[in-house]
Specification:
eight-stranded mixed β-sheet, binds cytidine-5'-diphosphate, EC 3.6.4.13, Helicase_ATP-bd, Rossmann fold, single chain, binds magnesium ion, Helicase-assoc_dom
Length: 710
């Protein structure tokens, strides 16, 4: 039976058009509804064909004549793979009629009509074209994911519509919001009671089992990785035909699990003398966000006869990507999330239990083509006590600095009364305003400064953009652009694991950091970049040094693009030019201070440091840093990001001199969020501003720098 399913799939792959997708029956109704309404919501289960088919229906119905059909996705990897698939279905080359745009990778042309892009890209594109005149239709896909950019786009499109941008456009814009689950009523209400078209899905029965390997007490442990691997192997050995989908949390972990799986599969096969069910019987494929495109494609291909495909994926396979033939799901129960930690005042990448509705969604992936099974490695108690009913949308969890700057650049000053689908907490917005004020992107009146506009030009976080701008104004951008590029690609280092080869790779990293000067993780990144760029055989160099060549390849490409932006900005007469001379290593760190002074910490007791931003959190240097173990020799440090496990760890760290930040640190304290709140609401009068300014001046005179530091 399974064989016949597989051979049918092969044929599908040849013709590339799948007429049995549930959405097919709704084609005419969808096209009609899109013609009759400015806003439309389409709700349909994952895999029903929304993402790949609806844009094609619209295209064939002539929607592309007056502008592009833009389709957003929250994830980069899904954007590319979907565009690829649709180009194949439409029998055109990628970048012609069908194209995609993700950060640092634009694969579109004059001819492009169906454009898949990340929601972040569309948001950025609105800066240059606020009325979206290039588009006839905007499809906001995966609305249920509630990613930050999609949420902001909801508000923007609603607002634009209210403001009558239709008058400024030659043709009216059609907005379609697509969602796999939930909240369609709420969305409909938000968009003025717009119609909802529901595509009923077809799901085979799924047996769900709690395996009790993880309980509430394991909430903060990483034991789930090995348990998940064990369950995956048991599934392979005990269950009948059908592919396996395993949910884990991130790239490094998935790579580790793949390795464990290889090793364990070998051991088990040896012990059981089951040669034919050895690791070759299991086609192990990782799937995560930063994966190279050609590798992603393998995920969708049917495995060779007699081989079971096993995909180890991040949450991306829960809704964004549908893999046919999955009959078994192994759910670790965890997901990696960026959470704004108000206590630390930072965005922190955390591994947290998934919500119950996400668990249901994950299980559903097992029943698309036949009855399936879902193995949950956790217990029912874990389900009850640790897993919330629903996921909290990004807008309530992550730092808003970047999107608020985007809104401000779009001349939406009243960021508090912006039409949010879910209103973020006011103090959260204030925190973002404060951050923007601190890095000089907005002024006291909440208006975007020249620097703010320059920051916006770079598709980087405001901190990093600021550091790059500083370097450019010093004329030493060749130090910072590679670092920014290296920080923009994921996982440069091959993770050190248990194998001999990986251990060697780990030692290689230490050697590299020594060669780069020994005590600066940013300099190590720069060193790797430069070595790679000048090496005659860069791929071999990376391999030898335990570096992901693909990551480096994209870093080289990203650096080129950042350089173009920097060169363009330098032409601008308002672009600052400053002088600073010193050794390379100092210049680099000095520039970093300009962007990262809110991420500065001072040695406290033992090996700990205390942040300087008013939160005064206690932090530790992560063992992956070259500074780990050298804490006693350090006084002031600057860090790029934070990881929380049992403690708060900082990663990518360098030592700095107090004198480089001493003029900057008071900025962390010189404005009260409440004052910016009045500014944000636009209720402020010129008189009030003057009053604050004189108050601030007195405060400055009184408190001096030292107080701010203590
Ligand atoms: O968006 P929705 O979840 O409703 O479905 P879709 O992504 O349009 O997927 C429709 C079908 O296309 C599924 O059967 C997928 O397996 C298939 N597909 C694929 O084979 N390769 C891709 N890159 C994307 C989708
Ligand atoms: Mg989809």
């Amino acid at each position: 039976m399974e064989k016949s399913v597989r051979s049918r799939r092969r044929e599908d792959n040849e013709s590339f058009y799948n007429p049995i997708l549930p959405i097919h029956k709704w084609k005419d109704e969808l096209v009609r509804a899109a013609k009759d309404n400015s806003f439309l919501i389409v709700m349909g289960d994952t895999g029903s064909g929304k993402t790949t088919q609806l844009p094609q229906y619209l295209y064939k119905a002539g929607f592309g004549k007056n502008g592009m059909i833009g389709v957003t996705q929250p994830r980069r990897v899904a954007t590319i793979s979907v565009a690829q698939r649709v180009a194949e279905e439409m029998n055109c080359s990628l970048g012609s009629t069908v194209g995609y745009q993700v950060r640092f990778d634009d694969c579109t042309s004059e001819r492009t009509v169906i454009k898949y892009m990340t929601d972040g890209c569309l948001l950025r594109n609105t800066l240059a074209d606020p009325d979206l005149t290039k588009y006839s239709t905007i499809v906001l896909d995966e609305a249920h994911e509630r990613s930050l950019s999609t949420d902001i786009l909801f508000g923007l499109l609603k607002k634009q519509f209210q403001l009558g941008s239709r008058k400024r456009r030659k043709y009216p814009l059609t907005v379609i919001v697509m969602s796999a689950t939930l909240e369609t009523q709420k969305l409909s209400l938000f968009f003025g009671n717009c119609p909802v078209v529901t595509i009923p899905g077809k799901l085979f029965p799924i047996k769900e089992r709690f395996l009790n390997l993880i309980g509430p007490r394991d909430k903060d442990s990483t034991a789930y990785v090995t348990e998940t691997v064990k369950v995956t192997l048991q599934t392979h050995l005990n269950e009948t035909e059908g592919d396996i989908l395993v949910f884990l949390t991130g790239q490094a972990e998935i790579e580790r699990a793949c390795n464990l799986l290889f090793k364990k599969a070998e051991a088990i096969d040896y012990r059981h003398d089951l040669y034919d069910r050895s690791v070759e019987g299991l086609l192990i494929l990782p799937l995560y966000g930063s994966m190279p495109t050609d590798q992603q494609k393998r995920i969708f291909l049917a495995p060779p006869a007699g081989i079971r495909k096993c995909v180890l994926s991040t949450n991306i396979a829960a809704t964004s990507v549908t893999i046919e033939g999955i009959r078994y799901v192994v759910d670790s129960g965890f997901v990696k999330q960026l959470n704004y930690n108000p206590r630390a005042g930072l965005d922190i990448l955390e591994i947290v239990p998934i919500s119950k509705s996400e668990a249901v969604q994950r299980a559903g992936r097992a029943g698309r083509t036949a009855p399936g099974k879902c193995f949950r490695i956790y217990s029912e108690e874990f389900w009850e006590k640790c897993m919330p009913d629903h996921m909290i949308p990004d807008i309530k969890r992550t730092s808003l600095a970047s999107v608020i700057l985007t809104l401000k650049c779009l001349e939406i000053h009243d960021v508090i009364r912006f039409p949010y689908l879910d209103h973020p907490e006011e103090k959260h917005i204030l925190e973002a305003l404060k951050k923007l004020y601190q890095c000089g992107a907005i002024d006291r009146t909440g208006c975007v400064t020249k620097l703010g506009h320059f920051i916006m030009e770079f598709p980087l976080s405001p901190n990093l953009a600021c550091a790059v701008i500083k370097a450019t104004s010093f004329g030493c951008q060749e130090l910072l652009l590679p670092v920014a590029a290296m920080l923009s690609v994921e996982h440069v280092f091959i993770q050190s694991g248990e194998s001999q080869k990986q251990k060697e790779a780990g030692q290689g990293h230490e050697e590299l950091s020594q060669l780069a000067g020994g005590c600066n993780d940013f300099a190590t990144l720069l060193y790797i970049f430069e070595q790679c760029k000048t090496s005659p055989k860069p791929a071999a160099w990376c391999h030898k040094n335990g570096i992901h060549w693909r990551a480096l390849k994209s870093a080289l490409n990203v650096e080129k693009q950042l350089k173009e932006i920097a060169n363009r900005l330098k032409e601008n007469k308002d672009f600052p030019v400053e002088k600073f001379d010193g050794p390379r290593n100092e210049m680099l760190r000095h520039c970093l201070c300009a962007g990262y002074f809110s991420n500065v910490a001072r040695r406290s007791v033992g090996r700990t440091f205390r942040t300087m931003d008013g939160h005064g959190s206690i932090i530790h240097i992560h063992p992956s840093s070259a500074l780990f173990g050298k804490e006693s020799q350090l006084e002031w440090i600057l860090f790029h990001n934070v990881l929380v496990t049992s403690k708060i760890f900082v990663r990518t760290v360098c030592p700095i001199r107090y004198e480089w930040v001493k003029d900057l640190l008071p900025k962390l304290h010189d404005i009260d969020a409440y004052e910016l709140s009045n500014v944000a609401r636009e209720e402020v009068t010129a008189e009030e501003i003057l009053k604050w300014e004189s108050k601030e001046e007195t405060k400055h005179r009184n408190d001096g720098t030292e107080e701010a530091l203590n």
